[in-house]
Design brief:
Blueprint (H helix, E strand, L loop, with lengths): L4 E6 L7 H13 L5 E6 L3 H15 L3 H25 L8 H5 L2 H6 L1 H13 L4 H25 L5 E4 L5 E3 L6 E2 L1 H15 L3 E5 L2 E4 L4 E3 L4 H13 L3 E5 L20 E3 H9 L7 H10 L3 E5 L8 E4 L11 E13 L10 H11 L4 E6 L6 E6 L3 H11 L1 H6 L6 E12 L9 H11 L6 E4 L5 E7 L3 H11 L5 E8 L3 H21 L1 E9 L4 E3 L9 H6 L7 H6 L1 H5 L4 E5 L7 H9 L3 E4 L9 H13 L4 E2 L2 H4 L4 H10 L4 E7 L2 H11 L4 H10 L8 H4 L2 H13 L9 E3 L13 H7 L4 H14 L1 E10 L7 E10 L11 E8 L7 E6 L3 H19 L3
Parallel strand pairs: 1-2, 1-9, 2-6, 3-6, 4-7, 9-11, 10-12, 19-20, 19-22, 22-23, 23-24, 26-28
Antiparallel strand pairs: 4-5, 7-8, 11-12, 13-15, 13-16, 14-15, 16-18, 17-18, 20-21, 25-27, 25-29, 27-28, 29-30
């Protein structure tokens, strides 16, 4: 064969349905017609399982029923062939089955019939008979595909791999004799020139002429051996775009790994991610023959290249593998020392019982051991260990075996991953932050992989988190936003403007999955387009209520990095926060009210978030976009002692104070502030000083002061009787009565060389206990507050370290854009923490 050869292997499950059979035939019809091509096929799952069932029936002595089962498999294959031809456009009455019946295909089953008769006579497993039965499936599959291609006018040559694969060793354990096989291929290859050959893979012939098979997934080895003998790369066609960075069922944006080494591919196979059988991969590796894994329905995509060299960057993890439906069986030492180490004995006992251990981890010196195995084997494994370790169990040297199921084995894989620093830290830190319990850990000396065990319910969250932590893909964050007023609407607009930048520049994908207000609730796990949020929420019928919003926590918790974002000023939100924390949902809030509830509520919010490893960020509750709370936290955490805090906490009242000093009447200044979005929905919240008092209380509690709203001395900005009006418009109109009074007051302050400001003061070490005061103050012109303009706010921290010159935080302290930016910053803290930034 002098022309280039194309060798392909079709994954068995691609041929498991009539649609799959038609797809493979279409694929072969379109590719390189007239060139030399070899396609290796094997029994699809339905056929392999059916042959095993017929063999089991024969071993019970019922050859008649076994033959009937075999005939049933042929009938099913013929029906699939007929349906596949119709899917490809064959009119009724013209299919190959209808034209010549099943005589040709039926003759292929004759060796299997004789083998089943023999099995029913001996009633014991004979590898030679089993090889004949199993090998029949490969030939039938190749014949079905050949007939389908013929019906499409594509000529092909059926080749039994047993005609050129020479094996040695006993049936059931046969291995390829490379020298004799090479000679057979050299003899046959001229007859394959310029043709499409369909090879029934996995079959062989022993030197003495007996039929053999190459064992489980032997067709993979057939493909690998043929590629090696012809010096041609091998392509594996499957139903995924290559070896994926994670299971697409768990990670929506999992992507193909462009380049792998054979050592990485073998590690992945051993960890449960199939490509080819390990023997086939080793055969290709030893001969330095590349393998490419590609998607049958995406033939133009490059897929994954696997070769000896790999990508050449051993410090970058390749992918995350998850193997589910396992059990973790643990043995712990008791009150006495065991006579011999438990770990080796436990593993030896399981091996002797034919129970495979997927992973094992033991303490030094083998006093306890954790073994991971198939969940279906857990009960029998426990019996085996109780029997093997009975003396130690009886005298208390061992505790009874403990079984945890279901669990999942998750592994991070990369070539020579141990060459990179902090891989384990990057792996486990975000899992710990999310409260995922790691039950057992193992790493090989080669450092190609780190495997660990988590509870089955945590599988999707774990895989997504690890996948994102190693920058395989974007860190997805799922947002349920409550409120789309001044702050909420600005937040959604900023999300829209920054979504692409955050994804491309920072690897963070912020998805709006829910939006709610006091009347409507919209939820879509697939995401709400940020350009359409207003139209989408307005199209929802009214009827929202707290229970409706609370019901969304369950679907929200199942999404990647769920975050509840509260942009409302609603009462009673603390109960929703608590339920969110317990459901595994982070909370970002601009709502001050939950933080100023009685002290026990404050403590319960913080402790519940901590116990459930959820973030609770509320920076904007004090200084809008200013880093006031974080600054105070940093001072306290680093051991500084706060002597006093003073500031204009309310950008709204700071704005009003400056407007009054500039000669603007009070009523007009308040209306303008409300129009600019500087006030609460009802401005009396601001003018009462309640908003500033809440902020002062939050800062006091951050210092560790056990205070409540009743402890705050509040003097309103306007007389209290004006604050009783609930209607906003009547309230604003009523303020006109105060215009002359405030104008006169401002004139008096100017005469004294002073400036009106609304300040809060916290004295944590006052003689009679901590003091919090909030109210209008006339300050001299050299006071820091006099520099404030517009809605600026400032906070001055006097501490042991900042005694002579207080630490000042100053900037815009009110308004939708800056508050929304602060909320967004809190959201990004969560995502960046998970990505280890």
């Amino acid at each position: 064969m002098t022309a280039p050869v194309s060798i392909t292997r079709y994954a068995p499950f691609l041929l498991d349905t009539a649609q799959g059979l038609a797809s493979v035939a279409t694929h072969l019809s379109r590719r390189d017609a007239g060139s030399t091509r070899a396609a290796i096929v094997s029994s699809p799952p339905w056929l392999a399982a059916g042959l095993e069932s017929a063999l089991s029936t024969a071993l019970k002595g019922n050859s008649t029923l076994a033959r009937q089962e075999l005939d049933g498999l042929l009938a099913r294959g013929l029906l699939m062939l007929e349906e596949a031809e119709r899917r490809l456009g064959a009119p009724p009455g013209s299919t190959s089955v209808e034209a010549d019946g099943s005589r040709t295909l039926a003759s292929l089953l004759e060796p299997a019939r004789r083998a089943l008769d023999g099995a029913s006579l001996v009633r014991e497993r004979r590898p030679a008979l089993e090889d004949v039965v199993r090998g029949t499936g490969e030939r039938l599959t190749a014949a079905l595909l050949a007939k389908l291609l013929g019906a499409r006018g594509v000529p092909s040559l059926e080749v039994d791999a047993a005609d050129w694969t020479v094996t040695e060793g006993e049936p059931g354990q046969a291995r390829v004799n490379r020298e004799h096989t090479r000679a057979r291929v050299a003899t046959l290859r001229p007859s394959w020139e310029g043709r499409l050959t369909l090879h029934a893979g996995g079959r062989g012939t022993a030197v003495d002429g007996r039929s053999t098979t190459l064992g489980v997934e032997g067709a993979d080895e057939t493909a690998a051996v043929l590629s090696v003998l012809l010096g041609t790369p091998l392509t594996l066609w499957t139903d995924v775009p290559g070896v994926m960075t994670a299971d697409p069922l768990h990670v929506a944006d999992a992507r193909p790994v462009p380049h792998l080494s054979y050592t990485e591919a073998l590690e992945l196979v051993y960890l449960g991610l199939p490509t080819l059988h390990p023997r086939a991969l080793s055969t290709l590796r030893d001969a330095d023959i590349p393998l490419r894994v590609r998607h049958l329905q995406q033939p133009d995509e490059p897929g994954t290249l696997i070769d000896v060299r790999g990508a050449g960057n051993g410090t970058v993890p390749t992918c995350v593998v998850s193997l589910e439906d396992l059990a973790l069986l643990g043995l712990e030492g008791g009150t006495e020392e065991a006579a011999r180490p438990v770990g080796p004995r436990a593993l030896q006992a399981l091996e002797a019982a034919g129970i495979d251990a997927w992973m094992a981890a033991q303490s030094s010196p083998g006093r306890s051991v954790a073994v991971v195995l198939r969940r279906a084997h857990a009960a029998r494994a426990e019996q085996v260990l109780r029997r093997e370790l009975a003396p130690e169990l009886e005298r208390g040297a061992l505790q009874p075996p403990q079984v945890r199921a279901p669990v999942t084995q998750v592994a991070l894989v990369a070539e020579a991953m141990g060459q990179g620093a902090n891989v384990a830290g990057r792996l486990f830190q975000p899992l710990g932050a999310l409260g995922v319990n790691v039950r057992a850990i193992a790493q090989t000396a080669s450092a190609r992989s780190i495997s660990f065990i988590v509870d089955g319910a945590e599988t999707a969250l774990t895989v997504r988190t690890v996948h994102a932590a190693f920058h395989f893909a974007h860190e997805e964050v799922s947002l349920l936003v409550l409120g789309h007023g001044v702050v909420g609407s600005q937040l959604l607009e900023q999300l829209r403007m920054l979504q692409e930048t955050l994804a491309q520049g920072h690897g963070i994908q912020l998805n709006l999955v829910g939006l709610a207000d006091s009347r409507r609730v919209l939820f879509s796990p697939e995401g709400i387009p940020l350009k359409q949020w207003r139209e989408r929420i307005q199209s929802v019928p009214e009827g929202a209520s707290p229970p409706v919003v609370r019901a969304l926590l369950e679907p929200l918790r199942r999404l990647p990095v769920p975050v509840l974002v509260d942009c409302t000023a609603a009462e009673g939100m603390q109960e929703l926060y608590l339920e969110a924390f317990r459901s595994g949902i982070h909370v970002v809030a601009a709502n001050k009210k939950p933080l100023t509830q009685p002290l026990e509520v404050w403590e319960r919010l913080r402790s519940t978030a901590h116990l459930n490893h959820r973030a609770y960020h509320y920076e904007t509750t004090v200084g809008a976009g200013l880093p006031v709370i974080q600054t105070l936290k940093d001072l306290v955490r680093t051991g500084d002692r706060v002597h006093g805090v003073e500031g204009s906490f309310s950008g709204t009242l700071g704005y009003l104070s400056q407007q009054l000093m500039d000669g603007v009447p009070l009523s007009k200044a308040v209306r303008t502030a409300r129009e600019k979005g500087f006030t609460e929905p009802h401005p009396r919240e601001d003018l009462a000083g309640t908003d500033a008092a809440r902020k002062a209380l939050i800062l006091a509690r951050e210092q560790g002061l056990d205070l409540s709203m009743e402890d705050v001395e509040v003097e309103p900005f306007v007389p209290r009787e004006y604050l009783e009006e609930a209607d906003v418009e009547r309230f604003l109109t009523g303020l006109e009565k105060l215009d002359r009074t405030f104008t006169s007051r401002i004139e008096g302050l100017r005469a004294e060389g002073k400036v009106l400001r609304y300040l809060a003061r916290i004295d944590p070490a006052a003689k009679d206990g901590p003091v919090l005061r909030v109210g209008p103050v006339a300050v001299p012109k050299e006071h820091p507050a006099t520099r404030l303009r517009g809605s600026e706010a400032f906070v001055a921290f006097s501490t042991e370290r900042y005694a002579d010159y207080p630490l000042l935080v100053q900037g815009a302290g009110a308004g939708g854009p800056v508050t929304a930016a602060g909320v967004l910053a809190d959201i990004l803290k969560i995502a960046q923490n998970l990505r280890g930034r």
